[in-house]
Amino acid sequence: MFIIPAIDLIEGRCVRLREGRLSSEEVYSKEPVAVAELWELKGAKRLHIVDLDGAFEGEPQNLKIVKRIAKSIKIPIQFGGGVRSLKTIREVLDCGVEYVILGTTAISKPEFVKQAVKKFKKRIMVSIDASNLKVRVQGWEKKTRKTAPVLAREMVKLGVRNIIFTDIRRDGTLKGPNISQIKKMLKVVNIPLIISGGISSLEDIRKLKPLEKKGLSGVIIGKALYTGQVDLEKAIGIGKQ
């Protein structure tokens, strides 16, 4: 089970939000390249980067920083935030990113997701972000009627081979992951699932570990790494057990 450190970018700064609200922004570093290098040094095998400016604007705004990060580390990067065209996917991949994450388009343009998967294969991931299992899009600002399990099934049918599930109500709260919702998602998909939202301790990682047998392939950790509540090296050790 991968333990994946997260870097969220706003105007080139490494930040964390609470439940996706811009008003809750906390700046943890003005040097995201150094942060990426630190996570690699501590044993991370993959890095999760979100361009929050891009998520709200509809087009990536921090690709220069992402390119610098990609040049400074050897581990693969999964990147999302405002990726809504094939041209943008190519631009992101050209920055040295290994996996591109689609979010809003999974709801608004499923045909585009199908095209992206056909063209870029396993390098396309879909992020399903939900509150009470109801999907939200456009930087989590817009509510939809679709549930996360239904959207996950639809994405699998389109050929998507990697899904990230984020529980918005837990994201940045350090309240622990919503195990019951994660189990519901694992029941409906037969592809690797990465989860995000609420990780606050090594005990949370231990609770998630048994779900690896049911398809949980990775856990994204953000705020808990920056506050020091989770030691990345120890978390990775639990993930490897």
Helix and strand topology:
Layout lengths: L1 E9 L2 E6 L2 E9 L2 H10 L5 E5 H6 L5 H10 L4 E4 L5 H9 L4 E4 L1 H5 L1 H11 L3 E8 L2 E4 L4 E6 H10 L5 E5 L11 H10 L4 E4 L5 H7 L7 E6 L1 H5 L4 H9 L1
Parallel strand pairs: 1-4, 1-12, 4-5, 5-6, 6-7, 7-10, 10-11, 11-12
Antiparallel strand pairs: 1-2, 2-3, 7-8, 8-9
Helix pairs in contact: 1-3
| SSE sequence, one letter per element | EEEHEHHEHEHHEEEHEHEHEHH
The structure class reads alpha/beta
Binned, the helix content reads 25-40%
Main sheet: which strands, in order across? 1-4-5-6-7-10-11-12
Q: Identify the CATH class.
A: Alpha Beta
Radius of gyration: 16 Å
Query: Globular, elongated, flat, extended or rod-shaped: what is the shape?
Result: globular
Low-confidence stretches: none
Q: What is the count of structural domains?
A: 1
How many DSSP-defined strands? 12
Mean pLDDT: 92
Beta-strand residue fraction: 25-35%
Largest sheet: 8 strands, parallel, barrel
Number of helices: 11
Question: How far apart are the first and last residues' alpha carbons, in Å?
Answer: 9 Å
How would you explain this protein's 3D organization?
The protein has 241 residues and is of the alpha/beta class. Helix content is 38%, strand content 29%.
